[in-house]
Design a protein that fits this description.
This protein is an alpha+beta fold. The chain is 43% helix and 26% strand. It has 2 domains: 60 residues; 162 residues, no CATH class. It contains 6 helices and 12 strands. The longest helix has 38 residues. It is elongated, with a radius of gyration of 26 Å.
Length: 240
């Protein structure tokens, strides 16, 4: 009876601890689909250079953090998009260069311009010479402002704006509890004083609160199981 009680208690406890670890991983994975929870942006707005930050800031993060994070760099600008080399079917749109290295068009813009996957488009930047061409790999529908934008590889956008190595912002998805994410942001603020580092409050707090509640419930369950196991062992030892 003693061995049975100890075995059952150990099995249930191990299962609950594994469930707690899995819950943290699954929460972080699910919240990634809602977008970034940490933003790194320039402190000043003035010249084009002052309104951007260095792409190399990503290298300041510890390697262990970079392995866990989902990071994307953006360079936003107002550009023009044409379906052919001659801009008879063209429009002025917000263009975002991203480190995801693909050519994507928002669903509303694609509908207005009658654009489709695998179609080649020409993009130019106001105030700068030159064009870049890309082939649409996906039509994206997010329900947000991205549905009216064009996403192109970051190096294309940097060339069009004559801003090599510069980005408008860096967005991060950092996993962890609310306190862990807050500590991560505080560390970044100390490491990158030249940039404005802040969290997206609603995502950070929501993920942290959900995990803390799940963790608290599982810890309480583990405690109850251990108490019951101890009582069963004591009863078996003092029995006839």
């Amino acid at each position: 009876m003693i061995l049975l009680a100890l075995g059952a208690g150990a099995t249930v406890t191990a299962a609950l601890i594994n469930l707690q670890v899995d819950a943290k991983h699954r929460l972080s994975t699910e919240f990634r689909s809602f977008g970034a929870n940490v933003v790194i942006a320039p402190r000043d707005t003035g010249t084009a250079e002052a309104a951007t930050i260095s792409e190399s800031l990503l290298q300041k993060f510890p390697q262990t953090s970079r392995d866990q994070m989902n990071a994307t760099a953006f360079l936003y600008f107002l550009g023009g998009i044409a379906q052919t080399e001659f801009p008879k079917d063209s429009a002025s749109v917000v263009v975002a260069g991203t480190s995801s290295n693909r050519c994507a068009v928002g669903a509303r813009l694609a509908s207005q311009m009658k654009l489709g996957v695998q179609q080649q488009i020409w993009i130019g930047s106001r105030g700068h010479q030159g064009k870049e061409t890309c082939r649409i790999s996906v039509i994206e529908s997010t329900g947000g402002p991205e549905d009216d934008q064009v996403l192109i590889p970051l190096d294309f956008a940097q060339r069009l704006n004559a801003l090599p190595g510069r980005v408008s912002m860096i967005q991060l998805t950092a996993p962890g509890t609310r306190s862990e994410i807050e500590n991560f942001i505080a560390d970044l603020q100390r490491q990158i004083p030249e940039a404005d580092v802040h969290g997206i409050r609603q995502f950070t707090e929501a993920e942290g609160k959900i995990y803390e509640r799940i963790s608290g419930l599982l810890n309480a369950t583990v405690l109850v199981v251990l108490v019951l196991t101890t009582l069963c062992v004591m009863a078996a030892m003092t029995g006839p």
